[in-house]
Description:
Order of helices and strands: HHHHEEEEEEEHEHHHHHHHHHHHH
Strand content: 5-15%
Shape: globular
Number of helices: 17
Largest sheet: 5 strands, mixed, barrel
Number of strands: 8
Distance between the termini: 55 Å
Amino acid sequence: MGNQVSYKSFYIFVAGFISAIFISSFVKIGFSFFLCLLLFSIFVFIYQKYFLIDIKIRSTLVFLIIFIFSFSLGILRYEIRDSSVPDSNLELLVGQKVSLNGVVIGEPKKKENFNELIIKFTDILVSTSSTKKVQGIGLIQTDFYPEFRYGDLIEIKGKLEKPENIKKEDSREFDYVAYLEKDNIEYKINFAKTTLVSSGHGSFLQAKLFDIKNAFTKNLEKVISEPQASLLGGILLGTKSSMSSEVKNSFQVAGLSHIVALSGYNITIVAESIMNTFSFLPRTFAFSGGIIGIIFFVIMSGASSTAVRASIMSLIVILANITHRNYKVGRALVVAGVLMIIYNPKILVFDISFQLSFLATFAIIFVSPILISRLRFVTEKFKMRETVAGTLSAQLLVLPLILYKIGVLSFVALPANILVVAVIPLIMFAGFFTGVLGFISVIVSLPFAWLS
């Protein structure tokens, strides 16, 4: 009985916190309202503890207090996250041509017609001989060459602008401003002229990880043509290589966009492969090997926020498969989601990858076991029934969100996913050896490249 009350209190607390984050994403509530709710919850707590006699009313009030208290904390967290004030020196120059210095703080992304850099501005040129310190993060579009790396300090010349929302063909609007703000990106410069000033201004470890990732990707590109090289890079390491709009649209129409990005499923394959390798050992050691495998895989991918999020989700899926205790894993999923939202409250509403990964993982944990028992007509050979159930459950739960956010309904998503998911482990195996053997010899890697 005590455990049930504790679990109920936990879920009420989570519901209050998440509700506050969700509402704050659309409405400016303010710090004063947080303070009022906090004081009100304290007052009600004191009242029910020392002045209220009826036990049933007291227990109900306790749950209400928990909800109000957690709701107030949610407001506080969002207010803290949203409290940054834009740099006045940058704000005054919006719409004008500027000359800025800044450090590349993320992995450069190679788009179809340009390179995209996330820059942390350091100073701005105010005259021919003087600069002024500034603070802000901007999204820079520049030419393919010269190429820049994480940690490079570069000079940027161009028109400083604020991002704007994107209107789609079906008259819907994509909240691009909020999407960028979740990563603290407040400015953009299109068609920027960029010059390298110096290198080595980022984390040494992260710079080396990106170097390893880039070298691995170049090994793939030496023996595999486009767009296959970009697809394989996305499947293995979540690389942001150039991919034509036509190819992207094809994957979207087929309901396979998640395949060409580093997802929880890809990371789960790596972990399960390691666990199978050590299956002769006790389960604890095999499970530990899976966890270590995920950590190393995420590090090699550059430890991006997407990869970290996917790794947490995949760890939960692995835990579900090993323990067969879905209810407790469900609580772990909620805890993981809440921790990620505490770290960055804006992902709840403005990060579709977080939403899709959470829903898909929820489906695999809770819906897939129900479907498995009802899909007896599907053979269990090659884990076909498990694959069909997992794919179908994930598709069912993410479909409404995809329709709302993207506006695409794919009638071939289910069969396409079933067919593709079956060969992803083989693709990752062959692709991994293609990249690794490429460090030794291009000729040695060719058979695996052909298989990939």
